[in-house]
């Protein structure tokens, strides 16, 4: 099959791609329809209604669980404004750059370890 595709022109490959995308969408639509039919049948056999199943909670199954966000400790603090801090990661904040331009060293901005 790969050899056959390699022998096609760019225009022919674009057509194959379009057709393939249409076929994939149709296959997904058919699979959803088939699954819905099976669910309806199973619910009916058990004397349930679809709305009683509360299938909204199943939407979370498609999502990957979120990793907890890492919180990095404050490493540097602005001596003029203690609310301005920096972890030492990423770009230097403006206040760090200003302090460095005035001759202050990063060591002087370090937060004492507890």
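-> sequence recovered:
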């Amino acid at each position: 099959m790969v050899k056959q595709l390699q022998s096609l022109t760019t225009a022919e490959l674009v057509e194959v791609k379009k057709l393939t995308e249409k076929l994939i969408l149709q296959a997904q639509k058919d699979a959803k329809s088939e699954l819905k039919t099976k669910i309806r049948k199973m619910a009916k056999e058990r004397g349930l209604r679809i709305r009683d199943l509360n299938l909204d909670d199943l939407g979370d199954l498609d999502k990957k669980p979120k990793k907890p966000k890492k919180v990095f400790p404050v490493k540097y603090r602005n001596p003029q404004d203690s609310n301005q801090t920096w972890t030492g990661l990423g770009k230097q904040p403006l206040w760090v750059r200003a302090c460095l331009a005035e001759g202050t060293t990063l060591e002087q901005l370090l937060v004492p370890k507890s």
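The CA atoms of residues 63 and 110 lie 40 Å apart.
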